[in-house]
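Question thread 4412

I'm putting together a teaching handout and wanted feedback from people who do this every day. The idea is simple: show students a protein as raw sequence, then show them the structure tokens that encode its fold, then repeat with a second protein so they can compare. Below is the first pair exactly as I plan to print it.
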Amino acid sequence: MHFAKYAAALVAALSFSTSADAALLLGSTGSAANTVTDYSGPGAVSFDLDLEHLSPTTLRFVIEADDLLGPLSLNAIVRNLSGAALNGFYFNLQGISYLAAGSVTPTFGTLGGVTHGADAAGIAFASPEWAEFHFGNPLALANQTDWFLDTRGLAAGDTFAISAEVPEPSTVALLLPALCMASVMAARRRRKG
């Protein structure tokens, strides 16, 4: 008799624990040829973006209660299905900001550098990416880390957007020298320090 009560209590507890709220994808805008698959969970924004057309895609999320317990981790797999080379990529934020930068891992291309500020992250590839790259650590691999979003000051029900876009070729041409100069300056600082 007591076993049946404990079993029923355990089943009820598990059903409540698996229904935890998470950042909820409200939808995406952009080319209908681009597909978004959402894997977000409590405290984590995670998605795949399949780009058949290199036009901007914007994903809109709503904050749920469990997302406010700490920073929100962010990771994504961006697949290049367009047949064109990716020389760079941007993830821009609206309604939320980056708290900490994470990994960017190309599959076949070579990473030239990553820049980021409170609401933008820019990726430049030294050699083009033709297949896919990982933003953060979507596959939970060693030596890779997620990006983190700052939830301080937000409340359940607030919305934010992530815009994913391929920069114009002229923007990439300007970004690469700036990244190279930043690398040279960082190397000089390390040698002096």
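The second pair follows. I'd like the answer to focus on this one:
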Amino acid sequence: MRKISANCLIIAFLALLVLGCEKNAIPEVTEPVAEDMSYVKFFFHAEDAPNAGFFFNDEKVTAENSSGEDQEQALDYTSVYPSNAYAVIPSGSGELEVRTLEAQNLASTSITTEAQNHYSAYLVGTSENYEIAFIKDNLPEPNHDLIYWRFVNTMANIPFSVDVYAIRAAVPATENSPAEDARVISLGQGIPYKSSGEYTELAPGSYTFKVFPSGTDYDPQESESFLEHGLTLASLGRVYTTQIRGTYTEDPGSSHIDYWRDR
């Protein structure tokens, strides 16, 4: 924790109003920090898990999320920390754990991170077996003219791998531009539980992100998907992830799919 606290002091004067070191929290940062630090984003994707927090080498690394002065709170299903960036931890090897407010250990795993690299940590599974999925985020080089998207599968008990597509809607002709046909962009084939696809470049437009069971017959544009959501992409220079989460059901709902900005 000595390294983390020192890092907070270094960046505090640069971010006094919007960043900082909360009690029991790692600073939320978007710019490079000390060379011996790694970036991690934490997700709570176990649908039936009690409120909990992530700990790295026995130090809490997710925020209090509390309106009380001293009352420590934990995060619940669908929560993300930090909300719009990455936290920082010392690079190297260590033990990542998820604990309840009563100090019950829900899951743990040994991790190794490389300095200045980005990662996502997910609490996944069910009450029978909670786990931590730890995935390296191979972020593309910053480019203010492009949009990138990837997919992560964290749905517990899912009985199949998935194929994922971004379907860009057709664009009608205007006075200044010709019509564009609908486009089908693959975000990955055969993606198993606790795994991800690669970041893929997408053009601005209206998209439907569709998830299909691998090995089945389907038409990406016309077939009914296992899960899907729709978005309009307009902000260039952004990097996102669509995720499926929670526990498998044959008829999943909107809480089982979401997207998040990585950069």
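Top answer:
Good format. For the second protein you could add a caption like this: Residues 23 and 69 are 10 Å apart (CA to CA). The domain at 147-261 is CATH 2.60.40 (Immunoglobulin-like).
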